[in-house]
Design a protein that fits this description.
The protein is of the alpha/beta class and 548 residues long. It is built from eleven helices and 30 strands.
């Protein structure tokens, strides 16, 4: 009985042992692959626009894995392309991703695949790459027309002030001659002493021979015609009212003298800055003079320009506009911008800016000109690092921006102060000069963009979708050509698209810190209805579009 019982127990034990052994095998089989995984710690990465290397991390456990690269042109290689093992616990592997530069103008994407061999599953890493340049769209509408553009230029260095720092014929030719900068307006001083009038004749004739407009303005009347008055506690020269006729005759003699010497003046001004310390005029005195003697001066064949107030002050400009007799004898409204124009964060400046920009709508088809301004911040410092006028960024943000805003403000002509001066359009012998004597400065090239591309055109509507890219556009009514002058005030390059149908030819030149009116490439938009231009950082670029 005991033997039977023993055998039965052994039988049961064998059965139970077999059952247990089979369960372990089954458990082992069931656990196969459990706890195995592989994935990227990130789902996406953004790489730089240029060639670059970046690291991504693969977390894995108990599996082998491999990496493949999906279709695309961003990723050049990954290292390593495989890793892991079936027995390893949770681990991390750094994978280096090498990328090429984005030479397109579009955002690019590409996928990297990670295959988990144990689970036979795939996870993806998205690689994104922005285009190398921001895209700016410019819209031109030639059907919306604004003011006519007469031209650009500067003041001929007055002999009585500048001594030997005068402009030679070859230097003048650089600015006004064929193949030069395209300047087309020359401003002269009417010297109070008639014996000095001959000093500027040859220069005026040379500029005129190249198609330039010559206009002149007096600073001082002769002492014989003046007295002294006190204005705001300051003694100033003042033209006596009883001498108005004599003064008018003085101006007429100048016009006649220049004509006899071969210079046909385009216009003559009543007074340079009547609100300053030269020869002082009250606004009402200006009106009286123009009413009485404007017609006689205009009979010589010249246009009469209003007195050029220092800040184009409403006190002077409004009195001319609002007096029918004086306005009838005034062909050009003129003024200077020394009281500010571009810094619209200043309430005073913004009010002055808005006033000036509103003049054109009030003058019944006549034009207003900006006839004098200069930018010379830091010139009196002994520390050359504070000579702001030497810096490209300063020139672009001052002269470039001001001309742009004047054009937007319906100005028809822009005339800088001295043509030849260390802060001017051409370098001189001053130690502060940014160029050698007689060489063109950055200011000179900035103005050249407008002189070459906007002179004798009509400003038309243009809009950009980026406030840091400033644009004005111009239509040549004779040829149908459209020209655009652009300021990129951003520290990064900008990819510009001009969607305009019918363009047959496009050309562009650019000036920046290292370039001076250099030709740059233009391309066709993908739609073939427009062109593309790459604007370098902090630059001025001019584009000419031909449609025939």
């Amino acid at each position: 009985m005991k033997n039977i019982t023993l055998l039965f127990c052994l039988f049961l034990a064998n059965i139970l042992l077999g059952a247990c052994s089979g369960g372990e095998d089954e458990k082992k089989e069931m656990d196969e692959g459990k706890g195995a995984y592989a994935f990227f710690l990130k789902k996406s990465i953004t790489v730089s626009t240029g060639e670059s290397q970046t690291d991504v991390v693969v977390e894995w456990a108990k599996t082998s894995w491999e990496i493949t690269i999906g279709e695309g042109e961003i990723v050049k290689s990954v290292t390593p392309t495989s890793g892991g093992n079936s027995s390893g616990e949770k681990q991390y592997t750094k994978v280096r991703v090498s990328c090429g530069a984005n030479s397109t103008m579009k955002k690019r994407t590409q996928t990297i695949h990670l295959f988990d061999k144990t689970n036979e599953t795939t996870v993806d890493l998205l690689v994104e790459q922005e285009p190398p340049f921001k895209s700016v769209t410019l819209t031109v509408d030639p059907m919306v027309k604004y003011q006519p553009i007469v031209g650009f230029g500067g003041m001929y260095n007055p002999k009585i002030w500048c001594g030997d720092n005068l402009i030679s014929a070859p230097q003048l030719d650089k600015m006004y001659g064929a193949g030069g900068l395209g300047y087309s307006i020359l401003r002269l001083m009417i010297y109070p002493n008639e014996s000095d009038w001959s000093a500027d004749v040859e220069a005026a004739k040379a500029a005129q021979a190249n198609g330039a407009i010559i206009f002149a303005c007096p600073w001082d009347c002769t002492d014989a015609l003046a007295d002294k008055i006190t204005v705001n506690g300051k003694e100033m020269k003042h033209l006596k009212k009883e001498n108005y006729e004599a003064y008018a005759n003085h101006l007429i003699r100048y016009v006649t003298f220049m004509k006899e010497k071969g210079v046909n003046l385009y216009a003559i001004s009543v007074q340079n800055e009547p609100d300053m310390e030269f020869t002082y005029w009250t606004p009402s005195e200006v009106v009286d003079f123009v009413k009485q003697y404007g017609a006689r001066i205009r009979e010589t064949g010249v246009k009469l320009m209003s007195p050029e107030a220092c800040g184009m002050q409403p006190e002077y400009t409004d009195l001319i506009i609002n007096n029918a007799e004086a306005f009838a004898q005034t062909d050009i409204l003129a003024g200077h911008l020394y009281q500010g124009f571009t810094d619209l964060s200043s309430g005073y400046v913004k009010n002055r800016h808005d006033y000036i920009c509103g003049v054109y709508s009030r003058i019944q088809g006549k034009t207003w000109w900006m006839t004098e301004h200069l930018f010379n911040d830091g010139e009196n410092s002994d520390d050359s690092s504070k000579w702001e006028f030497l810096k490209w960024q300063y020139s672009l943000n001052h002269l470039g921006k001001e001309i742009h805003m004047c054009m937007e403000g319906y100005c028809s002509a822009y005339i800088y102060w001295y043509l030849k001066r260390f802060y001017g359009l051409m370098g001189d012998t001053d130690k502060r000069s940014p160029t050698s004597e007689g060489e063109i400065t950055k200011n000179g090239y900035i103005m050249a963009h407008y002189a070459q591309y906007a002179t004798e055109t009509t400003r038309i509507k243009v809009v950009t979708n980026n406030e840091e890219v400033c644009a004005t556009a111009y239509l040549d009514e004779k040829t149908g050509e459209v020209t655009i002058v652009l300021l990129n005030l951003n520290g990064a390059s900008q990819w510009l698209e001009i969607p305009l149908a019918g363009i047959k030819k496009a050309s562009a030149v650019e000036t920046n810190e290292t370039k001076n009116m250099e030709v740059i490439d233009t391309g066709l938009m993908e739609s073939a209805e427009g062109i593309t231009v790459l604007l370098s950082a902090n630059s001025i670029t001019s584009v000419r579009l031909t449609f025939k």
